Amino acid sequence: MEETIQLSRARRNPRVDKRQTNCSTGRLTICGAAIITLNHMVENRLDVTFRALADPTRRGMLASLALGDKSIGELGEPFHMTFAGASKHVKVLESAGLVARRKAGRRQICTLRPEPLKEVEDWLRQWEKFWTAGLDRLQALVEQGKDE
Prior knowledge:
- By secondary structure, the chain is mostly helical.
- Helix content is 59%, strand content 9%.
- The chain has three domains: 2-41, no CATH class; 45-114, Winged helix-like DNA-binding domain superfamily/Winged helix DNA-binding domain (Arc Repressor Mutant, subunit A), CATH 1.10.10; 117-147.
- Strands 1-3-2 form a three-stranded antiparallel β-sheet.
- It is elongated, with a radius of gyration of 25 Å.
- Residues 1-14 and 16-43 have low confidence and may be disordered.
């Protein structure tokens, strides 16, 4: 009886995966949820790093960590945020590989890990030729205008 109800729900709702209706949570499982999770797991490291760097608060936290290790509370203090808010920002930085967190008693100490920033620098370096050529043309036009 239970299986018949689950199968009929699966027929009415195409988002329910029919293969999962045999398990106890089959009617609660949305087809495609695993695909979404899988896509997050396969994300490019460069994308994750840029996403972490997109927020000015996180960039400020990284700048603070460049001066030395700090606790989560110390990182959040200049931004007048709660420990929970600062911890969420640190978690994003940690998932991007930009920060390592360790416990020291009751405190959580964060350390800067610059390796992902090197990957960003390497990627940005490919555009250096484009900007250099454009600036060289601009300089030539400015100097040509001075001569006239």
